[in-house]
Amino acid sequence: MTGLTGVHRPHVRVLGASIAFLAGAATMAGELAAVRLLAPWFGASTIVWTNVIGVVLLALSLGYLLGARWANGAAPWTVLSRALCAGGLLLAAAPHLVAWYAQWFLPANLALDAADGVLQWGSLATAGLVFLPPMVALGCVSPLIVEWWTRATQAHAGSAGGFVLAASTLGSLLGTFVATHVLVPSLGLVLTFTVAGGVLVLVGVIVALTQRQLLGLLWLVPLAGMATHEAVASPAPSPIVRVLAQGESALQSVRVVEQVALGNPPWRFLQVNESFDSFQSVWSPTPGLLSNGYYYDLFALPVLAEPARERLHMGIIGLGAGTAWRVVDGVRPASMQLTGEGAELDPLVVEYAHTYLDLPRDGTRLRVLSGVDGRMYLQHAARSVDVLVVDAYRNQTEIPAHLATLEFWTLCQNRLTEGGWLLANVGSFGLQDPLLQALARTLAQAFGAEVHVWRVPFARNAVLIARKHAQVPDPAHLVTGNESFDALLRAIARPEMHCVVAPPATLESVLSDDCAPLEALGARSLSRARAVARGEVAP
């Protein structure tokens, strides 16, 4: 007895299990890569992950129901070949479709402070429009294989279902690791979806050939045209910049762009999953202070406030391309010996920084810890630091939760020398920004002392400043002798530009490893920014 024309019973199990395995691998690879595909537009926050997972689960459920219904037909293997081909072509088309739909919700001129709600609902809508159809098709695969298996081998449905589920789950396991560690870093997102979709189409064609039903796939030709259309995996850069390097790491999308203004030397920017007017690191032709609007200049405060120090050891969490190091190194007195360590989680960022942004390679003064999480750096650092800079972001406004809690700031305090400085950049919209205030309260609790919050002029950033058993200087009374920095201090000295946050009376408002609702605080921050823009509340 045969289940497919020319396929004998002993081969049905092998072919059925192989199809289930490959479909499972493609499904999981598509799900994981889907978040990466959405990240340049909507970020890679927990909300985006939730939206993608929710869409995939809904689609698979619908697919199981449809597959169960179509399995009652006369030729489930014919439907199987069509589901595989349709799912594969739609998956291969995903990069093009994401770019198309995302631009509906995120116009090119949309600023971050006007994006309240768009990041959440836009990512959900885009994920639904792009990934619901292919995942519904892939959800049909398992019920159809089980039906074919039972008809061809006379096996019990439970036995066939068990083998199919086992093969599909093992395929999902493989797809998880291969997509994250091999396909995306090596091939990029577009080719990853092309490979995953192409494998499914190939299997679908093989099934159709065994049944001599290849002509039945002609209706999929329009989908093939869409899948082979030139795809765009990230937003186009500004017309005033040129891309020097662009790639996909195991963590995120990374690119380096160069901006050239008429009559001025070129500046370079490191961008990670960026869709708004933002960046992760900046490089200017000469080290030192950058100018108004760049929060990195405030990281020079410890050096300029204590110019008589002979030695200063600096730690940087979220090294990026090393902007903080270049700023501090450029303003230090010649008599001060500056050394440091910088932890950067993404090795591709470090590679680009070495090549395009003058990040030191020799490690004689700055030791670059590539692929190291900031919290792990604190736990295992060989020595204490005099200055600790925290500038860790995944993209746009997303601070990793484990780098924002009481436990984390306590580790920071323990790593500082007596009188040591901590400076943390926080993207925010005014001194009363909910996220900024929560972080300031938590930091104050960890240090057992007041935390100073200094807004950066002409920027949507603030810097939290704390010291270990020492006072933070008042910007209104500090004079460093550096003309540019003193002008920055005078701007910050205005009442609306700085405040002091004391340790809270209770721990209820403090972020902890157990409870750190940064997503909700970030949403409230964006909501407040929109209210400020409308004039409903004061900045």
Structural features, described:
The structure is a single chain. The protein is of the alpha/beta class. Helices cover about 50% and strands about 15% of the residues. An eight-stranded mixed beta sheet has the order 9-8-7-10-11-13-12-14, with helices on both faces. Strand 1 and strand 2 (about 5-10) form a beta hairpin. Helix 1 runs antiparallel to helix 2 (about 45-70), helix 3 (about 75-90) runs antiparallel to helix 6 and helix 3 (about 75-90) runs antiparallel to helix 8 (about 190-210). The termini are far apart. Residues about 1-10 have low confidence and may be disordered.
List low-confidence stretches. Answer: 1-8
- The mean pLDDT is 85
Approximately what portion of the residues adopt beta-strand conformation?
15-25%
Tell me the distance between the termini.
77 Å
**Order of strands across the biggest sheet?**
9-8-7-10-11-13-12-14
**CATH homologous superfamily of the largest domain, by name?**
Vaccinia Virus protein VP39
